Amino acid sequence: MWVYQEQVDGKNLTDIINEKHENVKYLKGKTFTNNVVADPDIMSAVKGATLLIFVTPHQFLKFDALQTAELGPDCKAISLIKGIEFEEGGPRLISGIIKDSMGGMDTSVLMGANVANEVAADEFCESTVGFATEGAGAVWQKLFDCPTFRVGKIKDVAGVELCGALKNVVALGAGFCDGLGYGGNTKAAIIRIGLKETAKFARLFFKGIQDDTFMESCGLADLVTTCFGGRNRACAEAFAKGEGTWDDIEKSKLNGQKLQGTITAKDVMTVLKHKKLEAQFPLFARIYEIAFEGKDPKSIVEL
Predict the structure, then answer these.
(1) Is residue 92 annotated as involved in ligand binding?
(2) Fewer Cβ neighbours under 10 Å: the N or C end of the chain?
(3) What are the catalytic residues (predicted)?
């Protein structure tokens, strides 16, 4: 497992993980099995690999080293990364960037209602593999599926991935509602509109989107859990309460982790402005305006 090298109490994080079998900074109290080895050298970590799992924040994706790595035959990739990029007049999927950067490697995605500490505690949940080829879908489903982590699959990489990315934007809207003290009815409306705009965005920019995708764990289920319990929701609640800038809130609440919803909200708005589509996505546009243009959080219900 490649791990970005950090210092924790004067020691390398990778050394701590390998000695204690625990990520004491980001997942304290949850132990790894002994076969999970942290390696700060990405070339060493992936040498001979036939399956690559990408889980880094999307703003930190770097492929220079991986392009010359000694990988195993018929290597496949899967992305758990939440986010999109803006390139050449439209949105680009992280899985597409991985595929192109890795010489056309077969790349799937895994998204779902999977809050990390609950998964680590072995609490039951579901997830969804979005695949391009049946063979890859079967491999990833077999690899991840277990009695407490049930994995479905659907031939819809773009739909599954966009659900995982855009739910973080919707969660900002849910957090604004919480910060203002609004009740469940209001938040339910935000979730409904958010799911509708997510599906519309996906179908507008990508082909082959499946209707069933939005009823899988990657769709409605992930949206609900993120809008009620995720860090994007919590940080947006603090923002609506006036507890500081996004940077201040990120530093005080996330223990070095990065907030994905605000980054994705910017990327989405860049796409919508470029295509002059803001009016077709009133919730996405309003969330951006509240987050970055000083709009009153109360306007979240004035769509």
Answers:
(1) no
(2) C
(3) 167 (proton acceptor)
Domain's final residue, options 97, 131, 157? 157
Q: pLDDT averaged over the chain? A: 95
Residue 82 assigned to a binding site: yes
Within a domain: 33: yes
Does residue 202 share a domain with residue 132? no
pLDDT at 87 over 90: no
DSSP category for residue 181 = T
Total domain count for the chain?
Answer: 2
Where in the sequence is the domain holding 66, given as residue range(s)? 7-157
Is 273 a known active-site residue?
no
Would you say residue 64 has pLDDT above 80?
no
CA 72 to chain centre: 27
pLDDT in tens, 28-56: 999 999 999 999 999 999 999 999 999 98
